[in-house]
């Protein structure tokens, strides 16, 4: 059997999902273009005020696609399908609009992919080793002649190096989830195909924190939580419930670990987001109901 061909950054296409993106996306795209062969930015229904920014991205050399708003999965799938139809790429790098690659991110991710491919070890994606300087949780690994490769537990999709053969085997992202847990569902689906997510050694990703709030007890900070709108919390709860129902029987350890992490996050929001507490409780209850009933698609509200 012949060895796999060498992996080169020019063989990577980046797909960026964007919705009313910040001005920083221009500099981030400029930096990404230095690391990959092409960049496709998918405008997921932004308002007219974003038109100059998208024009600036095209001036840089990025391809910009416009579509009605459909959520992160639909936007990324639009980009993946566009890459496939227009010359293809053996690897696609998925990115959020508020993410920035660390130095040599793509080269490092390809190096991890190459180690696995030389050893004929299957994997679904190569994910970031760290986000905003924090290590990505891991879930075991595999020992190769070239050293150990760790498996990621539940990696965020921004920063994924996604091989075309994974998409061929596993399919596209699930658009019915719209937002939140899209990456978790794909991770679980890859795992079900025997393709766990790998940690890219040295792959550092800077990513926006959203609205981070401190958690205080008797005036003392005891940690923090990500503040979300009630609608977003309903999506989080619904989609998490759908994943639990779908994968608990076949991946109980992974599902229960993820469920514990999400439960702690919800409890922190309910305990410390005093202004929204009532609305958040209602959102959690409605999300549980939606998930137990198997509902997908956009939640109106």
From TrEMBL:
Keywords: Glycosyltransferase, Transferase. Pathway: Cell wall biogenesis; cell wall polysaccharide biosynthesis. One of its GO terms (molecular function) is glycosyltransferase activity. Residues 33-137 form the Glycosyltransferase 2-like domain. SUPFAM superfamilies: Nucleotide-diphospho-sugar transferases (SSF53448). It comes from the Bacteria. Pfam families: Glycos_transf_2 (PF00535). The keyword Glycosyltransferase applies. InterPro entries: Glyco_trans_2-like (IPR001173), Nucleotide-diphossugar_trans (IPR029044). Coiled coil: none annotated. Belongs to the glycosyltransferase 2 family. This is Rhamnosyltransferase. It comes from Lapillicoccus jejuensis.
